[in-house]
Structures are given as C-alpha cells and as structure tokens.
Design brief:
By secondary structure, the protein is of the alpha+beta class. The protein folds into two domains: 90 residues, 434 Repressor (Amino-terminal Domain); 196 residues, Immunoglobulin-like, CATH 2.60.40. 26% of the residues lie in helices and 35% in strands. The strands form three sheets. Strands 4-7-2-1-9-12 form a six-stranded mixed beta sheet, with no helix packed on it. A hairpin with a 4-residue loop joins strand 5 and strand 6. Helix 1 runs antiparallel to helix 2. It is globular, with a radius of gyration of 21 Å. The N and C termini lie far apart (54 Å).
Length: 315
C-alpha cells in the first residue's frame, strides 16, 4: 500500500525537500537513505515486484550518472515509489521535470515527458494482453520497411520477423506501433501478412500507441524457429522526420529501409544510435539517398540493447 507522504524519520525533511524540488537522483538517494535500505535490499524488493534492475544501475541512478528511461527502468521507478513509501508519480514527475529543463545534447523530438507517459500506457496495454517483456521469443532476424508519403507522413511499415522460442507453448507475438506526434490510432490498420493472423488490438489515442497480437496458429517448442510478416498502415500524423527502433535485449540482425515518395524527397539522411532515450545520440553517419529507389537503409549484424534509427531533413 502506498502512502500519501513519506514516513516520519530523521531523513523526512531532506526527503520532502528533494521530492518537491528534485532533482530525481537526489530524491531517490534521500528516499533510500530515509528507509535505511542498502541497494542490495532495494534490488531484492524490486525483484519481488517482478522487476530486474542491477545494483550498479541503482547506484548510477542515485548518483545522477544515468537516468532511468527504458520501459523496464520506468517500471522500476514506479515500483520504487511503492517500496520506498513515496507518493504516486513523485519520482516519475521529477524525471519529466528534468526533461523540461532541456538538454542541449539531445535532439528535438518527442519529449521525455511524452516518453514517460507512453511507457506507462504501453505497460498497461501489454498487461491487458498478458504479454511478458520478450514474449518467450528471441529475434534471429528482423527486416523492416518504412514508407513515407507525398505529404511527408509515415504511410506505413512492414516487418519480416524470424524468431526462436526459448520456452514451450509460445503461439503469438505482440507488436507495438508508436506513431508520430498527432497519430490517430483508430485510423491505423493492422496487417497480418504471412504465417500469422491478427488477434487482440489495443489503442491509446493520447500517445498514438497501438499494440497488436499476431497469432501463429501453432505452439512452438523451445528451440523452434518461426518466420512471419506483419505491418501497420498509418498516414494519420503530420510530417515525419525520423524512424527509431528500440531494443530491450541484444538480438540478431536488424535491417531498416526507409523509402520516400517521389513528391517528397528529403535533402539529407543519416543513421544514429542511442544508449537510451535519455542519452545523447552518437554514431551519426550520413546515408546517401538512392535516386532510382528513393530509399536509404541500415543494417545491424547483431543488435545491442538501446536505440537505432534513421533521421532525415526536409527543405
């Protein structure tokens, strides 16, 4: 049970001040100190909530060396609010406030507040579908094709996935579509293209998130591989400026191709990587636009946890 205010103990005044003014890492450190918990015990409590976070990560968070940003990390922050007897959303609000102050090394795009909100929505939608983080599948190969329309909008995307089951009984895959700002999920179509059919679909208007089940019509045994193809038709948002893919786990090969309409060609394109949504971008590399095919692409032979994407500039 969560409490409306922190427990009254010698660290209460410092904690209340930190929760009001932040920053996040100071408030987290004060909350842990007020509870008198070593980080190993905090980690243990998190594991009892079904969240896995390393002691090193917790240490970095309370030192301010890193900020939690991945969906699993944001789940951990919400669990910490309960474990440390803090008001609901108190730590999450401090994370969002840090973003509002601005970070000159971070690109413009979706704000950290919107990403925090989207993470909470995504967690809820996945919970409705009873989907674990990796769904019992490891990715061997993922080839993704993105189409940008004549109005510079994200028209749609298609994925060919090759997966391997790491437990018995897996019979579905849950895909997430997070449209560009202004996306209307009710107008997005879900396409089961090969070796799958559409199951349950959940949409959230405020964040532009759509979550869809793709059913295999067979139950995989541990070690079995499966190939399937699916897509989303969008076209509901404004001008698109980048396409990013986040990976919560290391995996197999990932290839991304972005193709543009003849009537809307960008002036330049580049690839980039990020350790996390809160980290500065790195690995920037210009990508030549093929005049005949009007496309650019990247290939990651073996993905690492983090973010990879392609961005482009309009005139």
């Amino acid at each position: 049970m969560r409490h409306g205010t922190p427990s009254a103990d010698p660290g209460t005044a410092e904690l209340e001040t930190a929760l009001r003014g932040g920053p996040f890492h100071v408030a987290l450190r004060a909350a842990i100190a007020a509870r008198g918990l070593p980080l190993q015990r905090v980690q243990h409590h998190l594991s009892r909530h079904g969240v896995k976070v390393g002691v090193t990560s917790l240490s970095y968070w309370q030192q301010g060396a890193r900020r939690p940003q991945r969906p699993e990390s944001l789940r951990a922050v919400r669990a910490l609010e309960e474990i440390l007897h803090l008001p609901d959303e108190s730590l999450i609000r401090l994370l969002a406030r840090a973003e509002e102050r601005g970070d000159p090394e971070r690109p413009t795009g979706r704000s950290y507040r919107s990403l925090v909100e989207a993470s909470g929505v995504l967690e809820r939608l996945l919970g409705e579908l009873e989907s674990p983080l990796d769904g019992g599948l490891h990715t061997i190969g993922h080839h993704e094709r993105v189409r940008i329309g004549a109005r510079r909008e994200l028209l749609g995307r298609e994925s060919q996935h090759i997966v391997r089951a790491h437990r018995d009984g897996v019979d579905r895959y849950v895909a997430v579509h997070h449209g560009d700002p202004g996306c209307a999920p009710d107008g997005v179509s879900v396409l089961a293209l090969e070796n799958c059919r559409t199951g349950r679909v959940r949409r959230h208007q405020g964040t532009g998130i759509l979550v869809a089940e793709f059913l295999f019509d067979t139950r995989l045994r541990s070690g079995d591989t499966f190939l399937f193809r699916y897509g989303f038709e969008d076209g509901t948002a404004g001008a698109s400026r980048e396409y990013v893919r986040g990976f919560g786990f290391a995996g197999g090969q990932y290839a991304l191709q972005v193709r543009f309409d003849q009537e809307a060609l960008p002036v330049r394109c580049h690839r980039f990587t990020q350790h996390s949504t809160a980290a500065p971008r790195s690995g920037r590399q210009e990508l030549p636009l093929s005049g005949r095919h009007r496309s650019v692409h990247l290939v990651e032979p073996r993905v690492r946890a983090g973010i990879v994407g392609i961005g482009w500039d309009w005139e």
